[in-house]
Amino acid sequence: MITSLSIKNYALIEKLSIDFSKGFSIITGETGAGKSIILGAIGLVLGKRADLTSLKNKEEKCVIEAHFEISKYNLKDFFAENDLDYEDETIIRREILPSGKSRAFINDSPVNLQELQDLSLFLIDIHSQQQTQELSDETVQFKIIDAIANNFDTILTYQNLLKLYKSEKSKLNALLKKQSDSGKEQEYNTFLLNELVSAKLKSGEQAELEADFEKLNNVEIIKESIDKSLVIANEEQFGVFHNLNEIKNALQKIAPFSAEYQNFFERITSISIEFDDVSKELQNASEKLLNDPEQLELVSQKLQLIFNLQKKHHVNSVDELLQIQADLGNTLLELDNIEEEIETLSKSIEQKATELDAFATTIHQNRINAIPVLSNQLISILETLGMPNVRFNMELLPSETYFQNGKDELQFLFSANKGTDFGLLKKVASGGEMSRIMLAVKAILAQYSKLPTLIFDEIDTGVSGEIAIRMGEIMKEMSAKMQIFAITHLPQIAAKGDSHFKVSKATVGDHTQSELKLLSQDERVIEIAQMLSGAVVSDSALNHAKALLN
């Protein structure tokens, strides 16, 4: 339950701090006094989005803090799962900065809005007039039935399985499409792969082939140049060898005279040895040179094949062609494995469908059992709320579709009077009837829910007199199991509360501000009398107010 609320710099509230008690609390006030502001502040604490319009003074931050007593609501696991410090009295604080940024804290630990919203689901249900209209929505109707049917855990398991089922179905459809599209593609890829494999490509061979081609294609020029070089080197009287030997002999004579001459001699000797090696290698190269047109043709063909493949695949190297070859091999292998993967996936999907059907059957049967309970309880409560002839027709229609909450569709029909046909709630129920039905629903759900706090925001729309008294009594009965707040304009309901708060608006200087005050017993008599007769309170109104309170 919420034990206290403090608000600073929010809308028309400059500063406010109020404590709440368990049981049934009433909030009243004139239209425009600020009741919606109090709800808005609580909404911010529960994780609703905020903006700069929330700030009364745009230069200061807005701070809203609420204290909750949660020791009886088994929330330790939630705090542990979200890595939050658990306290029996948990404090939630929301700050809106002048920059427009918002911050949230649970027991002084920073949290994001999603974590705040997740926690709020266990703390407070704010029932507004909009929520009354949502009663016509099939999803809301199912939630009501499932709460009574105790289907929550089963539906949660079903939803987790459904998520896996849909994921596998999506994967299967993608595989089937890939298999369908892969016919011609597989044939073409096979051709490309065979073409590359038959080329017998090797990394680095293109450079070797190009070198061989240049050598074979220019063999005559190469041989002529080598032979000429050998002649110049080896000619008896004027060859390089002869001249080098002459120089070496001349330097050898003067080498002993100084280190400098010795160095010249050694260097020319080294040159002579190196030149001798080069000459021998040129001789070997000359002997190996053959005019081989057949080999030249083979090298030329292989290079042309490589060039053609590179052009076809838009690459510039043999290594890139080899990578394409590997990729094509993997693609074809993957396509070969698709059929086996499809078969495995199909069996898994079939098994999950069987399990989903079993869960859906359990959910359906629990709903079948819950519907008479819900219908009878609704009729019983609504009869006391001035609807003696009310009837409900809730029919489950089995479907082949896997919905998020099972395989049922629902017809939730209603008739308020004898002799009238059943119709959809939103079409045949008046505003007052919808308010009473929603109150009856909340009263029933209170028996199955562990929610600490429920706030009714003007659920009394369209009712008055004895019906309003009975609505107040029902809320009073609900407050024995949970904390109930009712924002109301009806004195009959206001008189049923254990505590009574009044929202008022006052002008302070040049500013208007809202205030929330806990009324004393005497103040409460006057407030209810004003609700009965207006601003001018008559003796009869005071007596009537006292009678209602008693």
UniProtKB/TrEMBL annotation:
GO terms for cellular component: bacterial nucleoid. The keyword ATP-binding applies. It comes from Flavobacterium panici. GO terms for biological process: DNA recombination; DNA repair; SOS response. One of its GO terms (molecular function) is ATP binding. The keyword Disulfide bond does not apply. Keywords: ATP-binding, Coiled coil, DNA damage, DNA repair, Nucleotide-binding. Residues 2-506 form the RecF/RecN/SMC N-terminal domain. May be involved in recombinational repair of damaged DNA. Belongs to the RecN family. Pfam families: SMC_N (PF02463). NCBIfam families: recN (TIGR00634). CDD domains: ABC_RecN. This is DNA repair protein RecN. Residues 321-355 form a coiled coil.
